[in-house]
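Run UTP--glucose-1-phosphate uridylyltransferase through structure prediction, thanks.
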Amino acid sequence: MHKDKVRKAVIPAAGFGTRLFPATKVVKKELFPIIDRDGRAKPVILAIVEEAINAGIAEVGIVVQPDDVGIFADLFKNPPSRGLFPKLSPQNQEYSQYLQDLGSKIVILTQEEQEGYGHAVFCAREWVQNEPFLLMLGDHVYKSDTEISCSRQILDVYEQGNRSVVSLTIMPETMLHKAGCVKGVWQCNSILTVTQLYEKPSVDYARQHLHVEGMPENEFLCMFGLYVLTPKIFDFLAENINKDFRERGEFQLTSCLDNLRQAEGMTGYLVKGKCFDTGMPNAYRQTMIDFK
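Sure, done. The structure for UTP--glucose-1-phosphate uridylyltransferase is below.
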């Protein structure tokens, strides 16, 4: 098992954002603005990076399309133009330096062809090397119900058990068509041993195969959007890519997660917090209202 401290986070951000068209024709969905809890307007990707760094992550790899490298580099690594900088308030001038300091912890990786979420994760293989890593979605932001951030919660669970962890939330059966679903056996109130992962099940399948003991029959455990994974996941992703095994036309992650579970075991953790999806119009609008 991998007992190394989790140092790296991977954030896939190479999608086209088709559900937010036509806005994504000119602005990457990861760069859409939100008002963070500190009252500052910032791109979604910045809030995600800060979540990782504040949880103790040392380096963040952002996977982007080759044509978008300059956009993300400009955000994190380049100072404002000479014309803009003097117009900023003293507080924003100071924040500009903070952004560049943050940029020193960021590596920009590329996905040459957009062939699915699993493929985007695989593009971080050489950078991650033989280390466990935190995997975050590029269009989700998180709000903890406790003083411990959502990312720190899942990192703590990994460090206790030294095996891959998938974060979980409770969803009604009417939402199953939008999420990956998990079955398992409870170890305690919020931690379970995962026995199956299944992407976007039908209600009938979920009722028959994915119900977790002790939960109402119309509620299920679904993926929250944070993972701590051992590097073994890359072996299963590579196998699917080499065999051209696609699901819904793309290389997906969930089936490889289930392979990882079978090979090494996997822990599920019911996060004490909320996840906000900014990748769909209605969800993005609600995030602007509730993420505070």
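The radius of gyration is 19 Å.
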